[in-house]
Amino acid sequence: MSTSRNHEGRPGRRAVVVAAGAASVAAVLTACGSQKDSGGSDVVEPADDGMDTGGTSLARTADIPEGGGKVFADQGVVVTQPKAGEFKAFSSKCTHQGCTVSSVSGGTIDCPCHDSKFDASTGAVAHGPATRPLPARKITVTGDSIALTP
């Protein structure tokens, strides 16, 4: 007959090992549960500023410099204006190792982690180590507002 307590009334070694293993599994499952990337919110509320474009409001066209751009890390998008009145959008996640790009300058979208650079007009790799372009994102420009299209 097996018991989980020894003759001194204390838990036996097997009971301690089993309990520790169960506690470890429970801790891992709790930590990994349904937790999502904590980089931003799943629900995005558009600004209540009269911009009704059918998507998530990002910015006014005047906020995006000609020949440059702006990174909206919380939305996972970078918007560029390669030429006057021409707006492009790409994922803000670098295709090398998933870092968020940090800036747009000199015609490139720049990743701070390993110095990958992407063409601000096309999203193509301009300088590695990244080997794949930034995926395009859909935006809508209505009047002077830019919205991320669902």
TrEMBL record:
<comment type="function">
    <text>Iron-sulfur subunit of the cytochrome bc1 complex, an essential component of the respiratory electron transport chain required for ATP synthesis. The bc1 complex catalyzes the oxidation of menaquinol and the reduction of cytochrome c in the respiratory chain. The bc1 complex operates through a Q-cycle mechanism that couples electron transfer to generation of the proton gradient that drives ATP synthesis.</text>
</comment>
<dbReference type="GO" id="GO:0016705">
    <property type="term" value="F:oxidoreductase activity, acting on paired donors, with incorporation or reduction of molecular oxygen"/>
</dbReference>
<keyword id="KW-0001">2Fe-2S</keyword>
<dbReference type="InterPro" id="IPR014349">
    <property type="entry name" value="Rieske_Fe-S_prot"/>
</dbReference>
<dbReference type="GO" id="GO:0016020">
    <property type="term" value="C:membrane"/>
</dbReference>
<feature type="region of interest" description="Disordered">
    <location>
        <begin position="33"/>
        <end position="67"/>
    </location>
</feature>
<dbReference type="InterPro" id="IPR036922">
    <property type="entry name" value="Rieske_2Fe-2S_sf"/>
</dbReference>
<keyword id="KW-0408">Iron</keyword>
<keyword id="KW-0479">Metal-binding</keyword>
<dbReference type="GO" id="GO:0004497">
    <property type="term" value="F:monooxygenase activity"/>
</dbReference>
<keyword id="KW-1015">Disulfide bond</keyword>
<dbReference type="InterPro" id="IPR005805">
    <property type="entry name" value="Rieske_Fe-S_prot_C"/>
</dbReference>
<keyword id="KW-0560">Oxidoreductase</keyword>
<dbReference type="GO" id="GO:0051537">
    <property type="term" value="F:2 iron, 2 sulfur cluster binding"/>
</dbReference>
<protein>
    <recommendedName>
        <fullName>Cytochrome bc1 complex Rieske iron-sulfur subunit</fullName>
    </recommendedName>
</protein>
<dbReference type="GO" id="GO:0046872">
    <property type="term" value="F:metal ion binding"/>
</dbReference>
<dbReference type="GO" id="GO:0051213">
    <property type="term" value="F:dioxygenase activity"/>
</dbReference>
<keyword id="KW-0223">Dioxygenase</keyword>
<dbReference type="InterPro" id="IPR017941">
    <property type="entry name" value="Rieske_2Fe-2S"/>
</dbReference>
<keyword id="KW-0411">Iron-sulfur</keyword>
<feature type="domain" description="Rieske">
    <location>
        <begin position="56"/>
        <end position="148"/>
    </location>
</feature>
<dbReference type="Pfam" id="PF00355">
    <property type="entry name" value="Rieske"/>
</dbReference>
